[in-house]
Amino acid sequence: MTSTPTLFHVSLTRWGWLILSACLYWLLGYNTSRPQFSMLIGLYLLLLWSYSLRIRPLFNKALPNPTDTVHYKTDHFLFSAAVAFRVLLLVAMPALSEDYARFIWDGRLLLGGINPFQYLPVELMAGGVAPTFSPDPVLYQLLNSPNYYTVYPPLNQAMFALAAGLSPHSLLGSVIWLRVPILLAEIGSLRLMKQLLSRAGRNPNLALLYELNPLVILELTGNVHFEAVMVFFVLLALWLWQQHGATNRGQLLSAVALALAICTKLLPLLLLPVVVAQLGWRRGLRYAAITGGFAILLFLPFFNIDMIRNMLQSIDLYFRMFEFNASIYYLIRAVGYWLAGYNVLSAIGLWISVVTTVALLTIAFSRKHPSAVRVLWMLTGYFAMATTVHPWYITSLVAVAVFTITDRWQFRYPLLWSGVVWLSYAAYRQLPVREDNLLIIIEYGSVLLMLVLDMYRYKSAQKSYAEAPVEV
C-alpha cells in the first residue's frame, strides 16, 4: 500500500471536500436553529454524503491479508480535517440543546460553595434556601429542567465549575471553556483509537469512522455533550490495560481511568460485567472493586443523604417522566393502550427492567463473541429499551463500532443510526414539542433492517472460520 499524501501534497478534490464540509459545519453551527428542521436535515444530509465519500474505502481495508507485510499509512489530511471541523465550532453557541445552561448553573453553584445536588433551581430562584447565592435570571430562563435535581457526576461538575470560574459573567465564554476539555478529549480519542487499531493489526484510519462522523462532531463539540470525555477515558482505560495490564500498576491505572469515565457519565458502568467476563471472576472483581472504589472517592466531596436521595429521584423521574425518540418503549406503550386502555408500563416497568438486566448480563458473559461486539450489543439493547434517546447518545455506539469492523464482519448499523437519528429533531418544528411517528418508524425501521443484515453477515462469517474471532 502506498503512503497517503502529506498536507502539502493533496489533490484539489480533497481540498474541495474540506472547504465544502467546513462551510456545512459553519452553517449548522452558527446559522441554523433547532426549529429550522428543513435546513437542519438538508445540511446534515450533505454532511453525511461528504462523510460517506471518505469512509466508504475503509470498509475494504479493515484488516490486511495474513501474508500482507505492508503497514498501513495514517491519512494525516483527514485526521487534521477532523480536528479542524471541531475547532471551527469553538466559539458557537449550542443551537440544538440547552443542556449547557444547566452545566453553567451547576458550575456557578459549586463556585458559590453550594452542593449542586442539594437544591432545585426553582428553589434557589425563590430565595431563602441559599442566601449566599445570587441566581442569574437570564441563565435560569434557559434551563430545561428547573424542577429536577442535577444528575451529572463529579468529574462533570468539576469541569462545569472550571468553565464558570474562567468566565463568570459571559455565557459564551463559559460555553467555550466547557468545549475546551471536550475538544482535547476528542483529540486524545483520535490518538488512542489509532494506536489501539494498529496494535490489533487493523487499519488505524478506521478511527475516522468516529472522528469524521457528523453526529459526533456536531453533538459533542458543537452542542457541548460530555460523552466525548467519557469515550476518551474508556479508551484510555483499554490502552493502559494493553500497555501495562500484566502489572498491578497497570491494572490500577486502567481501573482509575474507567472510574473517571463513570464519573463523567454513568453509562460505562455497563462495561464492568464485560470486564469480569473477560478477566475471570478473581481478576475481574478486583478490577471492578478498584474502579468502584475510586469512583466513590470522587463522589465523597458531594456526599450526603440529600445527594443520594435527590440524584436517585431525578434519575427515576427522568426515566418515568421524559419520553423522546424511544423504540421498544413506545411499541409496548402503544400495545398496552390498544389492549388495556392505559399505559401498562407503570404496571410492568419493574419486570421489563429485570428482563433487560438479565439480557445485558447474558450478552456480557457470552465469551464466544469478541468483547467489542458484546459491548456494542449491550449498548444497543440499553438504548432500545430506553424511554429517551437523544441524538448524542448514539455517539457512544459509533465509538464502539470502530472496533467491530474487520475483514470478516462489519457492524454498520451504528453508523446508519448516527445518520437517521437526526430525524428526531423534527419534533422541535413547533411548540409544544411534538414527535412525528412516521419519522420514528423510518428511523428505527432502517436501523433494524441494517442490524438484521449485519447479524446475518456476522453469523455467516463465524461459521466460515474455525479459528477464534479477532479480539480488541
Quick overview of this protein structure:
This protein is globular. It is built from 21 helices and no strands. The longest helix has 29 residues, at 171-199.
Provide key terms for this protein.
472 residues, mainly alpha, 21 helices, 64% helix, globular, disordered C terminus, membrane, transmembrane helix, DUF2029 domain-containing protein, transmembrane
Work out the strand percent.
Answer: under 5%
- Approximately how much helix is present in the residues? 55-70%
Mean pLDDT: 89
> Judging from the principal axes of the Cα atoms, what is the shape?
globular
Structural class based on helices, strands and sheet pairing: mainly alpha
Q: Strand count, sense and closure of the main sheet?
A: none
Number of strands: 0
What would you report as the Rg, rounded to the nearest angstrom?
A: 22 Å
Instruction: Give, in order, the helices and strands.
Output: HHHHHHHHHHHHHHHHHHHHH
Poorly predicted ranges (pLDDT <50, ≥5 residues)? 64-70, 466-472
Q: What's the end-to-end separation, in Å?
A: 24 Å
Number of helices, where a helix is a run of at least 4 consecutive DSSP H or I residues:
21
Can you give a write-up of this model?
By secondary structure, this protein is mainly α. It has a domain at 309-472. The chain contains 21 helices and no strands. α1 (12-30) packs antiparallel against α2, α8 (171-199) packs parallel to α11 and α20 (413-420) runs antiparallel to α21 (437-464). The chain is globular. The two termini are 24 Å apart. Keywords: Membrane, Transmembrane, Transmembrane helix.
